[in-house]
Amino acid sequence: MNEICVGLIGFGTVGSGVVKILQQNKEIIEARVGFPVKLKRIADLDVTTDRGVRVDPSVLTTDVRQVLEDPEISIVIELIGGIEPAKAFILDAFRSGKQVVTANKALLAEHGAEIFKAARQAGREIAFEAAVAGGIPILRALREGLVANRFGKVLAILNGTCNFILTAMDENPGIPFDDVLKQAQDRGYAEADPSLDIEGIDTAHKLVIILALTHGIRLPLARIYVEGINRMDPFDVEMAKEFSFKIKLLALIIQHGEQVEVRLHPTMIPRNHPLARVDGVFNGIYLRGDMVGDQLFYGRGAGKEPTASAVVGDVIELARNVIGGQVGRVPPLGYPQNRIDTGGVMDMQEVVTNYYLRVQALDRPGVLSRIAGIMADHSISIHSVIQKGRQQSGTVPVVFLTHNAREKDVQAAARKINDLDAVEGPPVIIRIEDESLD
Amino acid sequence: MNEICVGLIGFGTVGSGVVKILQQNKEIIEARVGFPVKLKRIADLDVTTDRGVRVDPSVLTTDVRQVLEDPEISIVIELIGGIEPAKAFILDAFRSGKQVVTANKALLAEHGAEIFKAARQAGREIAFEAAVAGGIPILRALREGLVANRFGKVLAILNGTCNFILTAMDENPGIPFDDVLKQAQDRGYAEADPSLDIEGIDTAHKLVIILALTHGIRLPLARIYVEGINRMDPFDVEMAKEFSFKIKLLALIIQHGEQVEVRLHPTMIPRNHPLARVDGVFNGIYLRGDMVGDQLFYGRGAGKEPTASAVVGDVIELARNVIGGQVGRVPPLGYPQNRIDTGGVMDMQEVVTNYYLRVQALDRPGVLSRIAGIMADHSISIHSVIQKGRQQSGTVPVVFLTHNAREKDVQAAARKINDLDAVEGPPVIIRIEDESLD
Question: Which of A160, A193, A412, B189 is the most exposed place for a label (fewest CB within 10 A)?
Answer without folding.
Answer: A193
